[in-house]
## 1
Amino acid sequence: MQSLENHFLIAMPSMQDPFFKRAVTYICEHNEDGAMGLVINQPINVTVGELLDKIEIDNDKTQQAAQVAVYAGGPVKTDRGFVLHSPKLGYTSSQKLSSDIMITTSKDVLASLTTAQAPEQFIITLGYSGWEQGQLEQELLDNSWLIIEADPKIIFNTPVEKRWEKAVSMLGFDISQLSPEAGHA
């Protein structure tokens, strides 16, 4: 089994699940036990400042970071937050996912987001997307997803409404020409 860590899953145009329709999911972990990822293009109607207020973390509303949207990372444990960010050490619970991307789940990263100590780039998701053993592999066989290596520019620098199209364009072909049917020789 080849790990899909640090890859994007791009929902096929035929994906009907309302949560994953036109989703781009960053895969944080993938091994023989299953996979875990965060959808990076499903904003919810909450800003970083509002989220921090809700969980009683002081924040500076004058900072642009306080106005950034929070994302629905997936349908699992939607009360749990994840911060994907550019490399910055010193948080209690961080994991390096690539040379350009870290994930942190501890509150200390949240407290830094509207300060000078914040990571240079970040997105917050509530919830995650999870697959049990063999489930993601079956979805790939069912032609539900396309896979490309993750590009931090799509996560951090591409407007949310263009992330799916930008990820698709990295494939190098016109997605409208794809058949929704899986082919097997």
Note: The two ends are 21 Å apart (CA to CA).
## 2
Amino acid sequence: MAYNIVVIAGSLRKDSFSLKIANALAKLAPGSLKLEVITPAGISFFNQDLEGAPPADWLAFREKLQKSDGVIFVTPEYNRAIPGVLKNAIDVASRPYGKSSFNGKPVGIISNSPGPLGGVSAAKTLQNILPGIAGPIMQQPETYLNGVGDAFDAEGNLTKDSLKGVLQAYLDAFAAHVAKHHG
């Protein structure tokens, strides 16, 4: 049986590195994981006034997460944090209070940047936000992917072998993390 994992690529840009990395993860996933890549596109702004009658896009996003066995966040770094659209998606999914769609879901975090720091501040932002609204966050390996600008070909396929190895090791660890928390 394969665990169903939602991979949230935290950028809306059509050719975003986060989306390319998320798609590479889906292709590299071991047989024990079935990865579905999504983005925060189409999730309307969180507004607590709407909680009594949530918009259909909120309900669809929450249901997708609730039906999953785990979540991997793949995020770029915007101004030393996560993109606003990703924070909005987390806010939508974590409500109403006490009924977070992330509850009990094993979580993984991968940050990335074409620069040298690999989006470490974005990953730390997620590590600050998720406790209390999500399940267990995988602690090791910490994965901050730097220099991703030359890792993909024109079609978005991963071509950098060193990155492929890092993602494969991450997926193997995440598969064990999910199995441990669903076993």
Note: The beta strands are 3-9, 33-38, 70-75, 107-112, 143-145.
